[in-house]
Task: inverse folding
């Protein structure tokens, strides 16, 4: 995924349309299916997560075909703080700062979400020209926030 600012690609963000959706499900990172025996638990969990993303997207994308142009995506992956985390401040804040930098990588969450979007929002993830992703902890209930911006015109067309 490129993190090239849209202006350098000749895309004018003034000519765009944005959709947002919140998927109320614990984020699950991308996992590979090796086709050696039955799928791993990680792969199975990822497919369930992707199904939840697809259901939420189909609600807001109803009546639209997959977009064929440039797209800008933003993600926030909020994980529920595990029961093993420190319960009291200031130790809790320090725990969150230290553990947010551990696995899974934010790019693996992003890959799982983008794969779920293929065929609903866009035809191919190569259409995505800008991505912003972040992961964080939340006190209750994991979720994924997705913002999709369809870049409708390039600067050359305006």
Result:
């Amino acid at each position: 995924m490129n993190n090239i600012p849209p202006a350098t690609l000749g895309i004018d963000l003034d000519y765009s349309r944005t959709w947002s959706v919140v998927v109320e499900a614990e984020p699950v990172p991308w996992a590979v299916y090796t086709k050696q025996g039955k799928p791993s638990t990680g792969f199975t969990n990822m497919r369930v997560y992707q199904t939840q993303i697809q259901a939420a997207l189909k609600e807001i994308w109803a009546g639209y075909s997959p977009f064929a142009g440039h797209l800008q995506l933003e993600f926030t992956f909020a994980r529920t703080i595990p029961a093993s985390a420190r319960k009291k401040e200031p130790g809790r804040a320090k725990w969150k700062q230290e553990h947010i930098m551990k696995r899974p990588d934010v790019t693996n969450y992003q890959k799982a979400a983008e794969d779920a979007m293929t065929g609903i929002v866009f035809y191919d993830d190569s259409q995505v020209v800008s991505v912003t992703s972040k992961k964080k902890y939340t006190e209750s209930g994991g979720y994924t926030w997705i913002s999709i911006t369809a870049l409708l015109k390039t600067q050359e067309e305006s």
